[in-house]
Q: What sequence folds into this?
């Protein structure tokens, strides 16, 4: 495990937002992502992909890390490091067990359970870092642009 003090955030910060872990509030994250990626000249498909990944990751935080909607926070940092957009999502839930985070088998046709698969498909890099007890988890999503 690593504490937040030893966690390395890369790139220049473009935005930092904090919302309660409620699906109705995710629009704030989507709007911020669209604004910053559009301003950087990203195409509609890149913007759609990043919004999808963040939305799926946040839904997983709400459902699995927090166990449902709550006023506990989710923090989004949007950063730029050369041709990379780096998005950090932090929750304050118990540290996750990385080996338990899996997409269900794609041949198992039923609703739900594919968020992890979609995130990995549309992003160039995905990392989940459990922090020390009480500090939560950080999901790092990287999208190469231009």
A:
């Amino acid at each position: 495990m690593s504490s937040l003090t030893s966690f390395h955030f890369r790139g220049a910060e473009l935005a930092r937002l904090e919302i309660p872990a409620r699906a109705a509030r995710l629009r704030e994250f989507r709007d911020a992502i669209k604004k910053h990626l559009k301003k950087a000249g990203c195409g509609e498909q890149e913007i759609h992909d990043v919004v999808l990944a963040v939305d799926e990751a946040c839904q997983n935080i709400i459902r699995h890390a927090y166990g449902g909607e709550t006023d506990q926070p989710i923090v989004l940092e949007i950063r730029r490091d050369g041709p990379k957009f780096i998005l950090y999502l932090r929750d304050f839930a118990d540290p996750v067990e990385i080996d338990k985070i899996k997409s269900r088998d794609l041949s198992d046709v039923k609703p739900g359970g594919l968020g992890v698969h979609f995130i990995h498909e549309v992003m160039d890099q995905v990392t989940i870092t459990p922090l020390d007890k009480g500090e939560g988890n950080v999901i790092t999503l990287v999208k190469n642009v231009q």
